[in-house]
């Protein structure tokens, strides 16, 4: 990924004790909750069906963080909402990216990062080597990704779920296995193309619910 802008993102991994009431709904994005029916979604948003894929709805020019985004919603076979994906063009000054990171940083913490060539379990590094070492690793990884990689993925988990598993989990995968059912995940995706353009995307999902659903299907097969 060629470097288009000169900026450095510093991740602050501060795990703060937060008292959280139990949630019955898993909020993915604004008024969209995990498991919401397709009909209920269509009552809230003006979206179009994908004629080639009945499990998707999409819409253009959706307002998010004062920018315009294209939105893609994915549903399961029962037409229940599984994930919300938002994508926009990466602007020259990285205003959209920094705004997105700032907004997510209020409720989420980065736990995993990857590019074309390698991936880093940030949760494991914080647990074993501390925040300062992790921040340095992230800084170097980010600059390397923008210089030579065509993609960059940053996975974050909501702070409430992190608090419940911080002492017992040792890695990102272990975190997902031990996290509560209402865990929320936000994945930032930056992609570059041959014409020099970039896209910025974020996908909101409920990873523990998806894992449980996959496990139940596996048990049914046996």
Describe the protein.
The protein is α+β, with helices and mostly antiparallel strands and about 220 residues long. It folds into 2 domains: about 60 residues, Beta-lactamase Inhibitory Protein, Chain:B, domain 1 (2-Layer Sandwich), CATH 3.30.1450; about 110 residues, no CATH class. About 30% of the residues lie in helices and about 35% in strands. It is built from 7 helices and 11 strands. β4 and β5 form a beta hairpin. α3 runs antiparallel to α4. The termini are far apart. The N terminus is likely disordered.
Provide a quick synopsis of the model.
The protein is of the alpha+beta class and 222 residues long. The protein is built from seven helices and eleven strands.
Key phrases:
Beta-lactamase Inhibitory Protein, Chain:B, domain 1, 7 helices, alpha+beta, 11 strands, two-stranded antiparallel sheet, nine-stranded antiparallel beta sheet, 222 residues, globular, single chain
Quickly count the helices: 7
Helix content: 25-40%
Mind summarizing the main beta sheet? 9 strands, antiparallel
**Strand-residue fraction?**
25-35%
- Total number of domains: 2
Low-confidence stretches: 2-23
Shape: globular
Q: Mean pLDDT across all residues, rounded?
A: 86
Specify Rg, calculated over alpha carbons: 18 Å
Give me the secondary-structure category.
Answer: alpha+beta
Order of helices and strands: EEHEEEEHEEHHEHHEEH
The neighbouring-strand order within the major sheet is: 3-4-5-6-11-10-9-7-8
Through-space gap between termini: 44 Å
Number of strands: 11
